[in-house]
Amino acid sequence: MTDETYLRKTFDLAFQAFESGSRPFAALIVFDGQIICETLDERKWKMDPTAHPEVEAIRTFYKRFDLDQINRAALYTNVEPCPMCAGAIFYSGIGRLVYSVSRKSFDSWVAQCRMRPRQRCVGAREIIRPNGLTRVRGPLLEKEGLALIKHHFFPLRFEQEKTGTEN
Ligand SMILES: [Zn+2]
Predict the structure, then answer these.
(1) pTM of the model
(2) Left, alpha or beta for 7 (phi > 0: left; psi -120 to 50: alpha)?
(3) Contact 98, 6 (CB under 8 A)
(4) Which residues have their alpha-adjacent CB atom under 5 A from ion ligand 1?
(5) What pLDDT does 131 receive?
């Protein structure tokens, strides 16, 4: 399986998250050639603002494997991790991070939709790179990853939020 294959799997998971009423973010971890966990954005269900898929994936990994094995694992996510998740990735020492849509592209598009004011774009690369333990690859399949969010996810949610139909 290639990085692209795993990223497309995160797109499917992100869609699943959205269909379940959450935000369209997802992650998975590959270890020894196997997907060992798939996580969705769980903020809404857990009532926990830190329950991002990347953090949930790292927590899941540590429940099942030894601490020193994470350098052989790779984390895939459909959007470049936020600063909080990048910090968790930094401290976990996971071997690789592969993401699709860059934070810069994502934030620019969100700002365009006037969903929230433009925020300073701190990409995961800026936080993780000084460590040297985690190799970072991305953006990858960015056009596909962003199109998925643009055309299937946020427009609907944006309308729901505007009209107050979301429960
Ligand atoms: Zn995050």
Answers:
(1) 0.87
(2) alpha
(3) yes
(4) 52, 82, 85
(5) 62
